[in-house]
Backbone:
């Protein structure tokens, strides 16, 4: 997992074949007034961006998830969210995996730590790293946020 500010994105250019193009998309679309919600195919089957307006939720209303084929890059355009992280020890910890959506949810909560991600910050989650995004920060009620999520195929 990587957690940083977008000002430092060049540090990560070598992490994946497609990460430079992913960061270019974020730089071009990070202005919340100009970012239009939708799905953007940057490279067929390898690099897909989603600009979303969403509401945070309480921790008990979300599930830890994993991906197998894609790296998740989450960038916050407006607002803030907590992202919780955990671990999975065996296949029995995971609900049925959806190949179509590249996602599985944990059958049991195993949150180990969490951190707040604010405007201008991003985090990268590697395949099999459990995470629960869109959680309302402690002491705050559910709020609207705008974020960019980029799916980067692991090659």
Residues:
């Amino acid at each position: 997992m990587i957690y940083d500010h977008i000002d430092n994105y060049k540090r990560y250019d070598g992490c994946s074949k497609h990460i430079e193009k992913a960061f270019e998309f974020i730089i071009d679309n990070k202005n919340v007034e100009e970012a239009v919600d939708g799905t953007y195919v940057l490279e067929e089957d390898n690099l897909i961006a989603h600009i979303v307006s969403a509401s945070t939720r309480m921790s008990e209303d979300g599930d830890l998830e994993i991906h197998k084929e894609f790296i998740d890059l989450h960038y916050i355009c407006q607002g803030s969210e907590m992202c919780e992280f955990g671990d999975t020890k065996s296949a029995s910890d995971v609900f049925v995996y959806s190949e179509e959506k590249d996602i599985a949810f944990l059958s049991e909560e195993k949150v180990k730590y969490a951190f707040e991600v604010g405007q201008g910050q991003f985090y990268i989650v590697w395949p099999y790293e459990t995470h629960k995004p869109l959680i309302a920060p402690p002491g705050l009620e559910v709020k609207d946020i705008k974020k960019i999520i980029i799916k980067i195929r692991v090659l």
